[in-house]
């Protein structure tokens, strides 16, 4: 990866972004863009204006960085993400996490929309990610070693912090949300998976499947961050669903669950 792009992005953000470390960094995936409750906006910037990041090319990703205050805490939120399948390389995918690292952020909440593989899941359920499977075969740490990003060979035994997962469960129980722990399978996209692929992922232990999150989680873990992950099951995966898959279904699931998503993040924030 080109470190110059990270330097340029950090240089574009106002100094206030680096004055006080955020209590929580948030990366909002498909359908999660409106799931924030905000008391006071400190900084608001469009992705298109940030060097090296660029506007999101995917519907449902608003593409804004918002530094805000809520419940007496400072939150740095990336509303939308860049994906590896967009073809711009790893830099825009992990740039939000690198900026959070430079801000001194120690805790990161990753969210996404996914296809349900586990037969116990149904659209609208939430999966608290306990582990993941990288089915892409590459990751953003490939390349020259950067000491600021941790060890050359970072341990991935516990990517998703157990304590933060416990806080998510406490929030879900309070809000009476349908949730389960699960393993997230990461594919490159942009096409949806075949039924045979889904059966293979199921045999490997995957509960849900999606096209994001894992690169950011790997990068953040290497950098020493504490990570929590929430996946909204937007649809059933190929071969399990009885109809063709499409992105509109993902967007509709997010719209239907928006109130629950906002309450989930808000209650979690109150607990950290």
Helix-strand pattern:
HEEEEHEEHEHEHEHH
Helix proportion: 25-40%
| Shape assignment | globular
Please report which band the strand proportion falls in: under 5%, 5-15%, 15-25%, 25-35%, 35-45% or over 45%. 15-25%
The averaged pLDDT comes out at 92
Present the secondary structure layout.
Elements: H1 3-12, E1 24-28, E2 40-46, E3 64-70, E4 73-79, H2 91-103, E5 107-116, E6 126-134, H3 162-175, E7 179-186, H4 195-203, E8 208-210, H5 214-222, E9 226-236, H6 247-256, H7 258-271
Parallel strand pairs: 1-4, 1-5, 5-9, 6-7, 7-8
Antiparallel strand pairs: 2-3, 3-4, 5-8, 6-9
Helix pairs in contact: 1-2, 2-5, 3-7
Explain this structure.
This protein is of the alpha/beta class. Helix content is 29%, strand content 25%. It is built from seven helices and nine strands; from the N terminus they run H-E-E-E-E-H-E-E-H-E-H-E-H-E-H-H. The chain has helices spanning 3-12, 91-103, 162-175, 195-203, 214-222, 247-256, 258-271, and strands at residues 24-28, 40-46, 64-70, 73-79, 107-116, 126-134, 179-186, 208-210, 226-236. It has a five-stranded mixed barrel. Helix 1 (3-12) crosses helix 2 (91-103), helix 2 packs parallel to helix 5 and helix 3 (162-175) packs across helix 7 (258-271). The two termini are 32 Å apart. The mean pLDDT is 92.
């Amino acid at each position: 990866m080109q470190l110059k792009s990270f330097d340029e992005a950090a240089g574009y953000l106002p100094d206030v972004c680096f004055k006080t470390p955020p209590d929580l960094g948030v990366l909002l995936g498909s359908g999660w863009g409106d799931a924030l409750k905000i008391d006071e906006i400190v900084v608001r910037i469009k992705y298109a204006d940030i060097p090296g990041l660029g506007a999101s090319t995917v519907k449902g990703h608003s593409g804004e960085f918002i530094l805000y205050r809520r419940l007496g805490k400072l939150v740095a939120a990336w509303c939308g993400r860049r994906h590896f399948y967009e073809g711009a390389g790893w830099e825009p995918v992990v740039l939000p996490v690198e900026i959070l690292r430079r801000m001194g952020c120690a805790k990161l909440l990753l969210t996404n929309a996914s296809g349900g593989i586990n037969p116990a899941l149904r659209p609208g359920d939430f999966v608290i990610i306990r582990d993941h499977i990288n089915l892409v075969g590459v990751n953003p740490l490939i390349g020259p070693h950067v000491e600021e990003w941790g060890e050359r060979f970072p341990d991935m035994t516990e990517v998703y912090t157990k304590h933060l997962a416990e806080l998510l469960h406490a929030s879900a129980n309070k809000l009476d949300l349908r949730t389960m722990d699960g393993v997230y399978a990461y594919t490159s996209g942009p096409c949806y998976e075949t039924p045979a692929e889904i059966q293979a992922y199921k045999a490997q232990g995957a509960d849900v499947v999606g096209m994001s999150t894992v690169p950011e989680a790997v990068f953040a873990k290497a950098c020493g961050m504490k990570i929590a992950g929430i996946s909204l099951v937007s649809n059933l995966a190929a071969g399990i669903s009885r109809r063709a898959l499409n992105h509109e279904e993902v967007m509709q699931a997010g719209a239907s669950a928006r109130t629950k998503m906002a309450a989930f993040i808000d209650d979690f924030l109150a607990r950290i």
